[in-house]
Specification:
Layout (H helix, E strand, L loop, with lengths): L32 H4 L17 H12 L22 H7 L2 H4 L11 H18 L3 E3 L5 H18 L6 E5 L5 H8 L3 E5 L9 H7 L4 E7 L11 H10 L3 E5 L19 E3 L2 H4 L14 E3 L11 E5 L4 E5 L16 H37 L15 E4 L1 H7 L4 H11 L6 E2 L8 E4 L7 H15 L3 H5 L12 H6 L11
Parallel strand pairs: 2-3, 2-4, 4-5, 5-6
Antiparallel strand pairs: 1-7, 6-7, 8-9, 10-12, 11-12
Helix pairs in contact: 3-11, 5-11, 6-7, 11-14
The chain binds pyridoxal-5'-phosphate.
Pyridoxal-5'-phosphate binds next to helix 6.
Length: about 500
């Protein structure tokens, strides 16, 4: 049983008059608050704060912190999100005063260390991607997509071309169409073939002089590397369009191949996926973008440059064609410092091994999972793969077996994989083990999945059985979040 504390709100632990701190006697003259603040601004009643002891506070929040699964507590094969281990050393380094206590309004001369780090990161990201012009500003992958599409828009405008359409395959992440629309483009979905690769005929039918950008995730969210990518790039370039590479899956190809070499003109990285930054909760992500030299003038500004004469780093406002700022200051620097540490720690050969190991782990897990679930897209994958629980639907009559299996995994201490994405796979379970997991962990996960798919429909459908919250109404939770405590809430 979980500690009862963790099931209660801290307000419910409150006992009138209880106290966690003892303040020393005030040693300066005091005045009543109504002499200092106008009465109209004063509350008549004290705020209903919980009255609890110090140990109660500590236990309450420590117990709460264990209710969620995390990379540090559980195997977390959430496909497409790359939930890899966050090295604690990088956390420590990012917290050093020399980084954490800097202020963006300091003079450039007193920020030389940070500017050098950012400049080197720009260079490394440019080299890894084969796209040399880099902006670190965007605050997440989706924001990188938007910024790059704004770059494309500025580029076409400069050339006097009215290109209104952005295209992406049906396996694309939802952020692709969203970014396209936000950047003012119309969005067209291109079909995938049964083998998961882009349907070239459908693509050709939709290419023309209105084509602005084709967005491709390669490897795709199905965990497949589309080997037609060079051909796709040629087709899009022939009609004057640009190729955008959604780089969320760079974990599969670091040091193996480069988007710039297979035809991409622009891309984003997700440092919180590929370069081990912590996701959410612990803070923001980042979404650096890399583009060709041709597109460099349009990048968000400022970028970081080095002045050869004065031997100093400085913030470069760039050309007057720049789309300008897309975020305040230099971007989410804390995440960028972690990415820098990760890249420097591994070096070129190490990064290649990261990807090779991630791909090996995914293929090992695939080979185990295919013993009892469908794998619609073949026997080999890149860093992730999508299994289908459709056979379980037939065997049990369950309506949403992928969801039931995901919930049941919680009982066994595993974070579930991504479910029902991409929509092209029925009852999809998208698994991404990452490079940091051992064979024992992968075996334990596969063995558990095998056990689960043999359980009764009744057991599956009512899972999870051991968690405090079982099946929250996710729609209601999103539409009508209850963020305020009230005395009589039930
Ligand atoms: C995660 C992801 C994104 C969006 O990145 P965020 O950093 O979450 O905004 C875009 N595309 C793909 C394929 C992704 O997996």
């Amino acid at each position: 049983m979980r500690n009862k504390h963790a099931t209660q709100l801290i307000f419910e632990l409150s006992t009138t008059g209880r106290n966690g701190v003892v303040l020393p006697e005030c040693d300066v003259p005091t005045r009543d608050v109504d002499q200092l603040v106008p009465a109209s601004l004063l509350q008549s009643d004290c705020p209903p704060l919980p009255e609890v002891t110090e140990p109660e506070v500590i236990r309450h929040f420590t117990n709460l912190s264990t209710l969620n699964m995390s990379v540090d507590t559980h195997f977390y094969p959430l496909g497409s999100c790359t939930m890899k281990y966050n090295p604690k050393r990088n956390e420590r380094i990012a917290g050093w005063d020399g980084f954490a206590q800097l202020h963006p309004y300091q003079s450039e001369s007193s920020l030389q260390g940070m500017l050098r780090l950012l400049s080197e990161l720009q260079q490394m990201l440019g080299e890894i991607s084969g796209l040399p012009a880099v902006s670190l500003q965007p605050a997440a992958g989706a924001h990188g997509e938007l910024a790059a599409l704004m770059v494309a828009s500025a580029f076409f405008k400069q050339r006097g071309e009215n290109r209104t359409k952005v295209l992406a395959p049906d396996s694309a992440h939802g952020t692709n169409p969203a970014s396209a629309r936000m950047a003012g483009f119309d969005f067209i979905t291109i079909r995938s073939q049964a083998d998961g690769r882009v349907d070239l005929e459908h693509l050709k039918e939709n290419l023309g002089d209105e084509t602005a950008v084709f967005m491709i995730t390669n490897p795709s969210t199905l965990g497949l590397f589309d080997d037609q990518v060079q051909r796709i790039a040629d087709l899009v370039h022939e009609v004057g369009g640009l190729i955008y590479l959604d780089g969320a899956n760079m974990n599969a190809i670091l040091g193996v191949t480069r988007p710039g070499d297979f035809g991409a003109d622009m891309m984003h990285y997700n440092p919180h996926k590929t370069f081990s930054g912590p996701h959410g909760g612990g803070g923001p992500g980042a979404g650096p973008i890399c583009v060709t030299e041709t597109l460099r003038p349009y990048l968000p500004s400022p970028t970081v440059s080095f002045c050869n004469e004065s031997k100093t780093y400085y913030l470069d406002e760039g050309s007057e064609d720049s789309i300008g700022r897309v975020r305040s200051f230099f971007g989410n620097v804390g995440v960028l410092v972690r990415a820098y540490c990760y890249i420097r720690t591994h070096g070129p050969d190490g990064l290649k091994r990261v990807s090779e190991t991630a791909v090996l782990n995914a293929n090992y897990l695939l080979s185990r999972v295919k013993e009892f679930l469908d794998i619609p897209h073949g026997d080999r994958c890149m860093h992730e793969f999508v299994a289908s629980a459709a056979p379980v639907k037939e065997a049990t009559g369950l309506k949403q077996p992928a969801m039931d299996i995901a919930k049941r995994l919680l009982d066994y201490g595993f974070h579930p994989p991504t479910v029902y994405f991409p929509l092209t796979v029925p009852e999809g379970l998208m698994m991404e083990p990452t490079e940091t997991e051992s064979k024992q962990t992968l075996d334990a996960f596969a063995d558990t999945l095998r056990t689960i798919v043999q359980e009764t429909a009744e057991t599956l459908h009512h899972a999870p059985h051991t968690t405090i919250i079982r099946r929250p109404d996710e729609v209601m939770a999103a539409r009508k979040p209850m963020v305020k405590w009230t005395e009589n809430a039930d």
